[in-house]
Amino acid sequence: MSEIIGIGLLGLGNVGSGLVELISTNREHIQDRADVNFKILHAVVKDLNKVRQSNGIELSTTPDKLLAEDDVKIVVELLGGVDPAFEWVSKSLKSGKHVVTANKSLIAEYGDELLKIAADNNVRLLYEASVGGGIPLIRTIQDGLIANEIESVTGIVNGTTNYILTKMEEENLGYAEALKLAQAAGFAEPDPTLDVNGADVAQKLSILCRLAFSTHYDSTKIPCQGVDILTQDDISVAEEFGYRIKMIAHAEILNGGHDLWVEPALIPSDHPLANVRNENNALLVYGNAVGELMFYGKGAGRLPTASAVLSDVIEIAIASPLHTDMVERKRIGISELRSSNFYVRLPILDKPGVIGKITTVLGEHQISISHASAAIRKNGDSGFGQVRIITHAVDPAKLNLALKEIKGFPEMSGEPVALRILEVNGDRRN
Ligand SMILES: NC(=O)c1ccc[n+]([C@@H]2O[C@H](COP(=O)([O-])OP(=O)(O)OC[C@H]3O[C@@H](n4cnc5c(N)ncnc54)[C@H](OP(=O)(O)O)[C@@H]3O)[C@@H](O)[C@H]2O)c1
Description:
Elements: E1 4-10, H1 14-25, H2 27-34, E2 37-44, E3 58-60, H3 64-68, E4 72-77, H4 85-94, E5 98-101, H5 104-120, E6 125-126, H6 138-144, E7 150-156, H7 159-170, H8 175-184, H9 193-196, H10 199-213, H11 232-240, E8 243-254, E9 257-268, E10 280-287, E11 291-298, H12 302-318, E12 342-349, H13 354-364, E13 369-379, E14 382-391, H14 396-407, E15 417-420, H15 425-429
Parallel strand pairs: 1-2, 1-4, 2-3, 4-5, 5-6
Antiparallel strand pairs: 7-8, 7-10, 8-9, 10-11, 12-14, 12-15, 13-14
Helix pairs in contact: 1-12, 4-5, 5-10, 7-8, 13-14
């Protein structure tokens, strides 16, 4: 009979209650496979009066008791945000407890600092659920692909935006309607800002860069564009040209730096990421020995996320406490962005010569056009519409300069939108 390992929870919300359920449902199975057994001794919550299934777990609103309890060997942080998570996780590590967290904000911002505290105190800090929810990405990159130089990671790592884009595409909805649907289905928060503006994806990409390239990037410095700029028109024009729009996180070794970006991009409809629908996530990882691998599955949800959290807890219970990913981070910069084909949408007023003026500016910046179309709606004597262009490969900096110039035209009726068209990895390497 295996020893019972005590767990303390910081947070007993969605994922916390999923973890309680999973430990109870799969107890025998986990004992058979890993010969470990757990008991959740204590949980810290904000509101003691909230109705919840706490399965007899002792609750409190501060971590003092949990930290003082010798039998709590592993602390699982499921609070979200950095305050008070950073303070409570630091204290747990300093008091000799291993920590598991699902908190991408905490790891993206304070990962190195916390890993150092863990190493100094001879305990472990694991964070499998912080990227890709239930998909076992982190340990796979860290351990399974250790023999490879990782050349690139590209993927869909935010279920909310993927759900919104799927609904825009499949049900012909506008952005605002699709967002409402995502909120009603529980896939978007009441305040969805961090999901739709790309900040959540940038935090996850920062964590992936730490693992894949041993490099730390401040997530707020990663070039980032949200999905809130998209219209139904962008989705249908992309479709006309044979593409789907997906919120992509991309990092790749390029010219001694990293090509790094987060934005909605056009991807060919036969690309492996094009068929990742609804709240699912997928990541393509290119290793120099293994080639391209794809990981796909539920990127969120109480049980999928609890599955990743519990895998970390079991890993700590069965493995050596000395294993750590506290390696020295390299200082590599963000490289010049790679040239790429772009989809450009220009909202215009229907004035004579406007299309000519646009193509002249693009020509002056050596931007050549592969496809173009325009749709004008007349309203009495005036009219407005959209010019849509697919460019040949262009340096993003040049395109930005051209769009800045075009934006100043009196014939423009709104902001230009430029979306990158993702290449298929295999094409680039052949
Ligand atoms: N939900 C997912 O699908 C998912 C997927 C991947 C990663 N994650 C990550 O997992 C973590 C937890 O997510 P969740 O969805 O479970 O969040 P949640 O449902 O909002 O639960 C948060 C829990 O933390 C407690 N809490 C928050 N602030 C507190 C404070 N200042 N003092 C004491 N207790 C506090 C809350 O107490 P009350 O219950 O009293 O309010 C609640 O029990 C987050 O880092 C999230 O990013 C979640």
